[in-house]
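Lay summary

Proteins are chains of building blocks that fold into shapes. Our project writes down both the chain and a compact code for its shape. Here are two examples, one after the other.
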Amino acid sequence: MQRVIRFAIAALAALGGPAAAETLTVYTYDSFTSEWGPGPAVEQAFEADCGCDLEFVGVDDGVAILSRLRLEGARTRADIVLGLDMNLVAEARATGLLAPHGLDLSGLSVPLPADMLDELFVPYDWGYFAFVYDSELLPVPPASLRALVDDSDAEILIQDPRTSTPGLGLLLWLREVYGDEAAAAWHRLRPRIVTVTSGWSEAYGLFLEGEAPMVLSYTTSPAYHMISEGEDRYQAASFAEGHYLQVEVAAKVATTDQPDLADRFLAFVLSPGFQDVIPTTNWMYPVVTPAAGLPDAFAALVTPERALLMAPDTVAQSRGAWIDEWLVAMSR
């Protein structure tokens, strides 16, 4: 029997062994790949569909994905980037490193102007930035962004706009509300910023540890606590000026050596196997509403009266200058 086994092994080795499964490499952010994020369910469902190996490579946050793609250029291992948002698409397009997806996006349930949907980026979820607060530590939160900046004494946790899409979203939110007075607003807010983290996960973890009563997050974040913990202690403050919209996107890397598999994954992104897990793993709104609808807890969330969103080209032209302005305000 041992001779038969050794012969079989030798024969397989001579033939090159069994064919290895194709691998699709996806650059995304850490919270997507975490055990409580969408990554594990998405990986299991897609691998069952494609018979391939789906490999996630996590970085701190969405802005870091673009930075890594730029740094690696045509040598990148990525076949797909997943986790950019509409504030980064103009800069991502300008790299020349992305390829058209070939999908029809006309039927998506996403609050974007039609002209912001294009051939390179596939939206997969959306939500609104918000300051989530601990109602036991802060029973009455600020009712507007101006109140947070000018009238509140509440300490906050935020993310760095150089590495984080929420951090960049807050930078643009203040710019939308304060215009050219944004730098002065940052200067007034700075004494109450407990810390600036590189990504969302670290900031939210510190918030849950009680480091500050407010953290930059999403209007949908309280749904996690309501559904997973049966807890309504954590709520999102509703701001009178409106809330900045985030739409997250995926894209195919032009240098991929798995173009067909990459196309298959982008189509899968819009399927129930991906979309149905978004509300209760990424805690965002899906772009294709699940057949069973959204969880009941989503009906209790803050619904902004106004969605704020800058044109991607405007962000691309001014992001560097606005970040420099923020750095100066933070250092005073």
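And here is the second example, written the same way.
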Amino acid sequence: VRIICSTNRDLKEEVEKGNFRKDLYYRLSVVPITLPPLRDRKSDIPLIIEHLLNKYQEQNQTITILPEVVDTLEEYNWPGNVRELENVVQQMMVFCKNNTITIADLPPHIVMSNFSAKSAGRENLSLPMIIEEMEKEYIVEALRRSNWHRENAAQLLGITRKMLGDRMTKYSIAKESAT
């Protein structure tokens, strides 16, 4: 009999706490393999994405993913490890248009996580300054996600096209300056 098992807990520590039987631990730990979490091996992400795209796309279909999407996925922390990445890739494949996964296809929690990470280090700014800076970044991100189509970006933001134009003027946002 060969038993293959996995856990996200330190079994040696669990044995010491009395939560796992010592004899069972020694029977199971003949060839232990430690696999670091996905956040500690970000260089694997593009390869895993490629594998998942090949695995889930239909035979007569080729889905591509833009490099900036892969970059964004590499910045994310992946608390759910490879299972979470697999779910995200499947979700993006379902929602992508023209068989191309773009920034607009990223789940909101990943976009917001990366947005929050960029906001770190702003402790010395006043609240109005932080709000304006975040608003500007959010507008630019919506414009990028909509391929700089103002009406679509305004819809993503939940504001009118005129309000978007006013904010773009206020923050001096132009396609050339934001790329």
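What can we say about the second shape? The chain has a mean pLDDT of 87.
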